[in-house]
C-alpha cells in the first residue's frame, strides 16, 4: 500500500473587489476558494500553489482575504 502524504488543508476565501465609478461602493469582482497544499504541520504561511496565494492564519477555520483592485 502506498503512503499518501497528509496535506495541511487550511482554507481561505479570497474576495477581490472593485469600486463602481461615481460611487463610494465596492462590489465583489471575483471569489477564489484557497486550500493550502503544504505538508501537514508545516512552518510559516499557508500556500495555495494553484492560485499563487499565501496567507497567515490558524488552520482551524476558514480565513477571508479581502483585496481591492483598481481597474487600470
What does this structure look like?
With 72 residues, the chain is mainly β. The protein has one domain. It contains no helices and five strands. The strands form two sheets. Strands 2-1-5 form a three-stranded mixed β-sheet, with no helix packed on it. A two-stranded antiparallel ribbon has the order 3-4. Strand 3 (46-48) and strand 4 (53-55) form a beta hairpin. It is elongated.
Secondary-structure blueprint of this entry?
Layout: E1 11-19, E2 26-35, E3 46-48, E4 53-55, E5 63-68
Parallel strand pairs: 1-5
Antiparallel strand pairs: 1-2, 3-4
Considering the chains and any ligands shown, give keywords for the structure:
mainly beta; 5 strands; 43% strand; single chain; 72 residues; three-stranded mixed beta sheet; two-stranded antiparallel ribbon
Quickly describe the structure:
It contains no helices and 5 strands. It has 72 residues and is an all-beta fold.
- Average pLDDT, all residues: 87
The topology string of helices and strands comes to: EEEEE
Count structural domains.
1
Largest sheet: 3 strands, mixed
Please, what is the oligomeric state?
Answer: single chain
Amino acid at each position: 500500500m502506498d503512503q499518501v502524504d497528509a496535506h495541511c488543508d487550511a482554507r481561505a476565501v479570497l474576495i477581490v473587489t472593485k469600486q463602481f465609478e461615481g460611487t463610494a461602493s465596492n462590489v465583489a469582482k471575483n471569489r477564489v476558494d484557497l486550500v493550502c497544499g503544504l505538508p501537514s504541520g508545516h512552518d510559516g504561511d499557508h500556500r495555495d500553489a494553484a492560485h499563487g496565494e499565501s496567507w497567515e492564519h490558524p488552520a482551524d477555520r476558514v480565513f477571508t482575504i479581502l483585496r481591492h483592485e483598481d481597474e487600470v
